[in-house]
Write a structure and sequence with these properties.
The structure holds three protein chains of three kinds. By secondary structure, chain A is mainly α. Chain A has a single domain, classed as ABC transporter involved in vitamin B12 uptake, BtuC (Orthogonal Bundle). Chain A is built from 13 helices and no strands. In chain A, helix 1 (about 10-50) runs antiparallel to helix 2 (about 55-85) and helix 7 (about 200-220) packs antiparallel against helix 10 (about 240-265). Chain A starts with 9 loop residues before the first helix and ends with a helix. Chain B has two domains: about 1-75 and about 155-250, 3-Layer(aba) Sandwich (Rossmann fold); about 80-155, no CATH class. A six-stranded mixed β-sheet of chain B has the order 6-7-8-3-9-10, with helices on both faces. Chain B has a four-stranded antiparallel β-sheet with strand order 2-1-4-5, covered by helices on one side. A two-stranded antiparallel sheet of chain B has the order 11-12. In chain B, helix 3 packs parallel to helix 6 and helix 5 (about 110-120) runs antiparallel to helix 6 (about 140-150). Chain B starts with a strand and ends with a strand. The model of chain B has no long low-confidence stretch (mean pLDDT about 90). Chain C is mainly alpha-helical. Helices cover about 70% and strands about 0% of the residues of chain C. In chain C, helix 5 packs across helix 15 (about 315-340). Classes of the chains: A mainly alpha, B alpha/beta, C mainly alpha. Chains A and B meet through helix 1, helix 8 and helix 9 of A and helix 2, strand 6, helix 3, helix 6 and helix 7 of B. Strand 10 (about 215-220) of chain B pairs antiparallel with strand 1 (about 1-5) of chain C, so a sheet runs across the interface. Chain B: It is a peripheral membrane protein. Chain B: Keywords: ATP-binding, Cell membrane, Ion transport, Iron, Iron transport, Membrane, Nucleotide-binding, Transport. Chain B: This is ABC transporter ATP-binding protein.
């Protein structure tokens, strides 16, 4: 068969081909290097800017914050990109689908069931592991049900996720009201995103958990690109879709759980980072998208915190600013998608 | 050979595919026809493990579709659904390259590159190979997906309404291409198709479904009979023989 | 050629028709599938059913009046009357007049008005999944309230409410304008856009509330709570009663507007004017409720949808039902919030959010099951 391709003037086609080839081959690596450098600059500035005689006191605290933010950027970047890959769209993120609300609900229910006394008896870390375990269990059940059932419209999934989030938050605050005021205070602290003063032990155990959860991702890294072609094509190409998606969702729920435990909920951060990464690197290869989105996350968090903290002297407003920008971006994506 | 026995799918109370049993011999073009909602696409999807069956079994060359590891099956059988919207921006070559995934597991070897080159060449896509798929026209995009299936190099190629959204010219080209694939590459092409005249002119066998059940199967001459077509579609269709092809006149 | 017989013998067990009970539980009204009103539906459409429902709400109102920390119940009143305890009786009446009656009245007014506002909103957006708190109206109202609190702290309550209402009109207009930009009116996209618009406005509000140390105050606007209602601090709510009445009078026009601009024009209804009226009613109701009580989420979404399932979408018929159900729904939630952790109170907004979100979710999943 000879379609209209034959009529196309060949030189033109070759010209176009060359141009594209140049742009595509250079950019992902360049982008990664540039953003990586920017991330390093941000970290450096954050750590050492305005350091005075109190360095011995200030520096460890700053390092703690930077480390927390890097960890969060890693979790959010990776989990959002992979979540969007397995759900084949660029609007859904674990946070928008209610993952972090679910984690907060689990925290609240646990406090409600075992009380502050049980909390101290159990110890912080076993409690944390218990919370994470429950999170994985429920997230895997719920979201597998939502995503592996074929043919559910994106908007319905999105709306269901958002309402689930609202419901979880509603139940959490209802249960909190049922708690004693003292127990309420314990929880209240964990309900707002804040990058200040994360307990060192919690940080250590988080690193261990994240590292462990990353292993299955490394094992199946080659499948991510195929998954982004959509369920049917992926199955036709021999991917065990249900199992792969379930694994990714479990890892996502661990990442989100750790993140929420560390700094609290930040709904739209992943959406911003992932979509910026897609826009910047112009390739579908996860080998590039994943590192770029993590680096972007570091730039956004550390740089944003740097500006807000040192220039405007707002301490915990970063999550509000992220919420605002992310909401606008989300609206834009929604409307653009529908107009298309 | 693909062997279906007692294949059944239910959605709630409604049975979409109802105990379908058939044997599809290797080689040639096999068309599945039937009215809307007859269960054609669902049956095809079950054969390709995209939809889980509620009852019955499918064997592809003695491999049970239910138990065979998905990546092994992907070397035997490929399927192309009608809506192929990509959320990712891919070049033609990238997408066709994914056809090699079952063989290469993501790391392209020299022989994979050869397969990709051949598939692109077979569909006259070589000069488009660095264009993005979403920049192509509907007909071209369809060819890119076919090229991907060819690169996958399976014995059986399943296509769900491949003529959807194609104009007459591109439909004829597509059907000719599918025939050529069976002759030159020795593939077995099984497709769901709405236009009975395309099915009649280009298939070796036709399976007809109605209300979830397989009602008859045979060569185009056997199926293209007014009384049988009335059974399948509940309407009167006159059949004329033009240049040895049986053509149904259903426009008025 | 081989003609395969259709395989009718469905031997896979359990499919043989089992003896059915005479009346399937839960299937009270199967007539709607046949298209003609069955006895249950006819009953629903009669005024008698509405009166019964209104009486039920009245009973709830009486219960609500006698729930509270101070011991004022019909029994104590009787004892005081019988025992000639005039001082005690006076004290009881004082409590009723200052605290209990205002509270019950404000619950009824707010519930009724927010539910009707949701219904009007749905007609205007031509979408079943919107209501003032999912399209940015409530968020805009609290932004306005915050602005006036920061800029003119000494403004009287009525002035604050006015500013909040202006902002609420602006937010609603913004939402409807964004809707115009969606050529393909996807039923689920509309509430998504609304919720996100609300989130963005809420983020702005939160930011400034944080800057001016008003987060605590903002919280009282965002979570509806009747515990602060006493005589002298709820009377603005009577305004929403008047607005609801206007909504009822203009019901036919809203029904027509709900069929779209083209149909409205054909039927001789001034579409723009009726949209402006609807926006004003919704915005004013939201502003008043946010100022006096705080936001009551999902109420305007859940109640009209339930009523729509029962008796359809003709607003002339459905407004009274929506009003009655709205009042009843909030009364129940308020009573629950007061007794569940007695003697502490749980804000009604929290209770409604849980129940409302659960019902909304059920509605969405039902939609999924059907499609």
């Amino acid at each position: 068969m000879t379609p209209k391709s034959a009529a196309l003037p060949v030189p033109n086609a070759i010209q176009q081909k060359r141009k594209r080839f140049v742009v595509r081959s250079v950019s992902p690596a360049m982008v990664t290097a540039l953003i990586g450098a920017l991330a390093l600059v941000c970290i450096g500035l954050y750590l050492f800017l305005g350091l005075d005689a109190n360095a011995a006191y200030v520096l460890p605290r700053r390092a703690n914050r930077v480390f927390t933010m890097v960890l969060v950027a890693f979790c959010v970047g990776v989990s959002t990109v992979l979540f969007q890959t397995v759900t084949s769209n660029r609007i859904l993120t674990p946070s928008i689908m209610g993952f972090d609300s679910l984690f907060m609900l689990i925290q609240t229910v646990l406090i409600f069931v075992i009380g502050t006394v049980g909390r101290t008896q159990l110890g912080t870390y076993p409690l944390f592991m218990l919370e994470l375990g429950l999170m994985v269990l429920f997230a895997a059940i719920m979201y597998r049900w939502l995503f592996t059932g074929s043919g559910l419209s994106l908007h319905l999934v999105l709306l269901i996720g958002i309402v689930f989030g609202t419901l979880f938050r509603g139940i959490s605050s209802l249960l909190q009201r049922l708690l004693d005021p003292s127990e309420f205070m314990v929880l209240q602290d964990s309900m707002f995103a804040s990058f200040t003063g994360v307990d060192l032990g919690l940080l250590r155990i988080s690193v261990a958990i994240i590292a462990a959860a990353t292993i299955p991702l490394i094992v199946m890294r080659r499948r991510f690109d195929v998954l982004s072609l959509g369920r049917d094509t992926a199955i036709s190409l021999g991917i065990n879709h249900t199992r792969t998606v379930t694994t990714v969702l479990i890892v996502c729920s661990i990442f989100v759980g750790v993140c929420t435990a560390l700094v609290g909920p930040i709904t739209f951060f992943g959406l911003i980072v992932a979509n910026l990464a897609y826009a910047l690197c112009r390739t579908f290869r996860h080998a590039w998208i994943l590192p770029i989105s993590v680096l972007l996350g570091i730039v956004a968090l550390v740089g944003g915190q740097l500006i807000l903290e040192r220039v405007f002297a707002f301490d915990t407003a970063l999550s509000i600013v992220i919420e605002f920008c992310g909401g606008l971006l989300f609206l834009f994506l929604l409307l653009r998608g529908s107009i298309k | 050979m693909i062997e279906l026995s007692g294949l059944t799918k239910k959605y709630g109370e409604t049975t979409v595919v109802d105990h379908v049993s058939a044997q599809i011999e290797p080689g040639g073009v096999v068309s599945i026809i039937g009215a809307n909602g007859a269960g054609k696409s669902t049956a095809l999807s079950m054969v390709a493990r995209l939809v889980t069956m509620d009852d019955g079994s499918v064997f592809v060359d003695d491999h049970d579709v239910l138990n065979t590891p998905s990546d092994q099956l992907a070397k035997k059988l490929s399927i192309l659904r009608q809506e192929n919207t990509l959320t990712v921006r891919l070049t033609v070559r990238d997408l066709v390259g994914f056809g090699r995934f079952p063989h290469s597991k993501g790391r392209l070897r020299p022989e994979d590159t050869e397969h990709i080159d051949r598939a692109l060449d077979y569909l006259n896509l070589t000069e488009f190979e660095d264009r993005y798929v979403d920049e192509l026209s509907g007909g071209q995009r369809q060819r890119v997906f076919i090229a991907m299936v060819i690169a996958q190099d399976t014995d059986y190629v399943l296509l769900d309404e491949p003529l959807n959204n194609l104009d007459m010219k591109h439909s004829v080209e597509m059907m000719k291409l599918l025939r050529r694939m069976t002759h030159e590459l020795g593939k077995t092409v099984i497709l769901v198709i709405h236009d009975i005249n395309f099915a009649s002119c280009y298939s070796d066998r036709i399976l007809a479904m109605k209300e979830g059940a397989l009602v008859c199967q045979g060569t185009p001459e056997e199926i293209m009979q007014p009384d049988i077509l009335r059974d399948i579609y509940d309407m009167d269709i006159r059949v004329e023989v033009i240049n040895g092809h049986h053509v149904g006149m259903y426009y008025m | 050629m081989s003609t395969l017989a259709h395989a009718p013998e469905n031997t896979s067990g359990g499919s043989a028709p089992e003896p059915q009970p005479a009346v399937k539980p839960g299937a009270t009204d199967r007539s709607d599938q046949a298209g003609r009103p069955g006895p249950f539906r006819r009953l629903l459409r009669s005024n008698g059913a509405l009166v019964i429902a209104a009486l039920a709400v009245l009973v709830l109102a009486v219960i609500s009046t006698f729930v509270g920390v101070a011991d004022v119940t019909p029994a104590t009143l009787m004892r005081q009357v019988a025992g000639g305890d005039t001082a005690g009786l006076q004290e009881s009446f004082h409590l009723l007049a200052v605290s209990r009656f205002p509270r019950t009245i404000s619950v009824i007014l707010a519930g009724m008005a927010m539910a009707v506002a949701g219904l009007i909103m749905q007609q205007m957006a031509r979408n079943k999944f919107v209501e003032p708190s999912t399209v940015g109206t409530v968020e805009s109202a609290s932004l306005g309230l915050l602005a006036v609190t920061v800029l003119v702290p000494s403004a009287p309550l009525l002035g604050k409410m006015g500013v909040a209402a202006v902002f609420a009109v602006g937010g609603t207009a913004l939402f409807l304008a964004v809707l115009q930009k969606i050529p393909l009116r996807n039923a689920l996209l509309v509430p998504l856009v609304g919720i996100m618009l609300g989130n963005v406005i809420a983020a702005i509000t939160t930011f400034f509330a944080y800057r001016f140390n008003l987060l605590q105050t903002l919280n009282t606007w965002m979570i509806g709570d009747f515990s602060g209602v006493i005589k002298g601090r709820y009377e603005l709510l009577w305004l929403v009663a008047a607005l609801t009445l206007i909504g009822y009078i203009a019901a036919d026009r809203f029904t027509v507007a709900g069929m779209g601009q083209d149909v409205s024009t054909t039927l001789g209804v001034n579409y723009k004017r009726i949209m402006a009226l609807g926006m004003t009613i919704v915005a004013l109701i939201s502003a008043v409720v946010v100022v006096t009580i705080g936001s009551i989420p999902f109420l305007g979404l859940v109640v009209p949808n339930i009523v729509s399932l029962m008796i359809g979408d003709n607003m002339r018929r459905s407004v009274p039902w929506v009003g009655v159900f709205g009042a009843g729904f909030v009364l129940v939630c308020d009573i629950v919030g007061r007794v569940i952790r007695y003697p502490f109170e749980i804000p009604v907004g929290t209770v409604v959010a849980v129940v409302g979100a659960a019902i909304f979710l059920a509605m969405l999943l039902r939609k999924r099951a059907r499609s």
